[in-house]
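Chain A, query sequence.
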Amino acid sequence: MRQNLGSVLGVILLFMASMVYADEPYTWSLKSSKNSAYVNEAIALEYICDFQDQANLHVIELNIAGENEEYRLLSQGVNETIQDGKRRDTYRYVLFPKEAGQKEFRFKVLMRKTTKDSIEHSVIGRDNVEDYSFVDKEVKLPLLSVEVLDHQEKMTGRFSMDVKLDKREVKAYEPVHLDLKVSGEGDFDQMQDVQLLIDGVKIFSEPGEKHYALTNSGFKGEWEQKFSLVSDKDFTIKPIELHYFDIAKKERVILRSDSFDVSVKEAYTKEELLDDVEENDEAWWSWSYLNYLFTFVLGLILGRYSLRFKRINKSAEGFEAEIMRCKSVNCVLSRLVLRGGAVYTPLIHKYEVLGKKASLRELKTELKTLFKSDTITEVKGKDV
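Chain A, predicted structure.
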């Protein structure tokens, strides 16, 4: 019954449009995917302008995309075609109504027409629209009438949620990584960052990443937010909830993740951060000693000619450069936590304890030493 009413409404709109624009060399019509929708439910619109010929002298300025208290109107682009010598311009939009009730929207378009004489007197060899002489006429587009149904949720559509924790048992001050993903279709642009609050836990997070595109049914794709959690004692991550209005079920839906218990053990010792080195005092000679001798001789030879070459200081690259660009201790600690790795745990612990007394310069100096040390080399080899 709803689809039949939509078809009848479309025929009426086409008829009314033909009557209004009967005296003009063009006709505007409107196609709407729905005549009834819920608050924040997507409605696909097509405003179509049919000309009686190729309409080379006509320019259309349709700038109706925007947002106010009643709606959000987003553009999906324009398509111009010529068939049987007649031009057709199709403007596609997606409307999100923001208020309940019987709503009517009538937008305006600026129809601009120039003349052949104006074109001939414009800049020769290169079109310059500013030199053209136009006759402008503001035209009302066909009326859009929509019944907007109310609900109490901030988001509307069809969604699913997936929450993953990388590990549930860590050493003290070792980061735990939480990944939150919401997939589906609807008013995804209303999705807001999730705020986690856990006593005794330092929480690092970045703004949610948007991986979706506008379709006739709203935004379709995925939204993702990542967290790193640091603590020196056991903690629990409570279930994360997402409330929305499901337009298919026509009811409120609550998505809820599992809760996670994280066990935190004592921090790493210095010995645990270093690889074991097997000592062998029995053998006093190794053929590898020849390598040392060769390296020593080669160093002497190269040293004699080193002054002939200009010394080049190699700048930091990759993660080290990212650390050195930080302007605060919190920035450095955030990067270390998100990077992960047991080798950074003592520093994170030390400067978390120092708090406001922590020195950015001293922290960077310690990290420079760590980056050059054998310890960080070994850890890098283990894909920290």
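The chain has three domains: 2-149, 157-265, 270-277+312-380. The first strand starts at residue 26 and ends at 32.
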